[in-house]
TrEMBL record:
GO molecular function term, any single one: purine nucleosidase activity
Record keyword Hydrolase present: yes
Pfam families: IU_nuc_hydro (PF01156)
Coiled-coil blocks: none
GO cellular component: cytosol
Domain Inosine/uridine-preferring nucleoside hydrolase: 4-298
Keywords: Glycosidase, Hydrolase
Statement: the UniProt record of this protein carries the keyword Chloroplast: no
Protein name: Purine nucleosidase
Alphabetical GO biological process terms: purine nucleoside catabolic process
UniProt cross-references to InterPro entries, sorted A to Z: Inosine/uridine_hydrolase_dom, IUNH, Ribo_hydro-like
Organism expressing this protein natively: Evansella caseinilytica
Domain of life: Bacteria
Length: 310
């Protein structure tokens, strides 16, 4: 099993990604760090604890991270119109019995990368604030991490939170630009591919018909997200953004990547991810530009409810 740390701003698709990661049994989840983004960091932590309890995986450590961007006040507000007032599609869950850890997120990340050199994949499903803070604290982690998979950016397609910017990058653009340039081995799974993997009302129907507590939970939280995407974007379903990044951590073959130099605009089109030429002082990152949507979707739908056993 691949050791991973998952960083989240839970969020409906973060919750689906966590469920997929757990049920696939392909990943050894060392811990989940939380960040502001779709909701506040406190809400992201609460939601993550609740999701883990529903999934009967409350033994996975949850570690609260940053409450705001590294170098500025909030640029972007919460995404309650996308994820619901509570971040989980307004599905009410019991107050979590489990508690979050008290260690700082960057220390949790550093401790684990030092304990398991070259063995840990870091999966970022929210802003890159916690990762940037960890690199700033100890740049040695650039060599210690096996790889980083980031859900974020829109390199050759339009953005979502702004016409030019994707939400996770826009949430903390300075942190994202710093991470992209740090030289850390990074695969970027952005809107270029995630909007080609949609969860549709028909998929939700499959979960409803299965009618287990687990499948009902997945169906209940997904409806709000799907409604938003169909209404606001005219799509046939919602983008499986965060689940696809987990999919890529499980099997890189779900996507085709190209090594590109990518920067984050910190000026007029803040949060925009764009390619630059080789001349610049800059690290290459692997950008996912194509996805085998059918293969990924089949794997996701199979694993998230049945796991690898059936
Ligand atoms: C990303 O932004 C958040 O709203 C989602 O959880 C996902 O991580 C999609 O742009
Ligand atoms: Ca997210």
């Amino acid at each position: 099993m691949k050791k991973v740390i998952i960083d989240v701003d839970t969020g409906i698709d973060d919750a689906l990604a966590i469920a997929y990661a757990i049920r696939s049994e392909a990943l050894d989840i060392l811990g989940i760090t939380t960040c502001f983004g779709n909701v506040s960091v406190e809400e992201a932590t609460r939601n993550t604890l609740q999701v883990l309890e529903v999934l009967q995986a409350a033994d996975i450590p949850v570690v609260p991270g940053y409450a705001k961007p590294l170098e500025r006040d909030h640029l972007k507000g919460k995404a309650l119109h996308v994820h619901g007032e509570n971040g989980l599609g307004n599905v009410e869950l019991p107050v979590p019995e489990s508690r979050a850890r008290t260690i700082a997120a960057e220390d949790f990340i550093l401790d684990n990368l030092r304990s398991f050199p070259k063995q840990v994949t870091y999966i970022a499903l929210g802003s890159l604030t916690n990762l940037a803070a960890a690199i700033q604290k100890d740049p040695a982690i650039i060599e210690l991490v096996d790889k980083v998979v980031v859900m974020g950016g829109a390199v050759r397609v339009p953005g979502n939170v702004k016409p030019h910017a994707e939400a996770n990058i826009y949430t903390d653009p300075e942190a994202a630009d710093f991470v992209f340039q740090s030289g850390i081995p990074l695969t970027l799974v952005g809107l270029d591919v995630t909007l080609k993997t949609l969860l549709t009302p028909e998929d939700v129907k499959v979960w409803e018909e299965l009618d287990t507590p687990h499948s009902r939970f997945l169906a209940d939280i997904s409806k709000f997200y799907i409604d938003f995407y169909m209404r606001e974007n005219g799509l046939a379903g919602c983008g499986l953004h965060d689940p696809l990044a987990v999919g890529v951590a499980i099997d890189q073959e779900f996507v085709k990547t190209e090594p590109l130099y990518v920067r984050v605009d910190l000026g007029e089109e803040i949060g925009k991810t764009y390619e630059v030429g080789r001349g610049e002082e800059q690290s290459l990152i692997d950008v996912a530009l194509e996805v085998d949507a059918e293969k990924f979707k089949d794997h996701f739908m199979q694993m998230i409810v049945h796991g690898p056993g059936v």
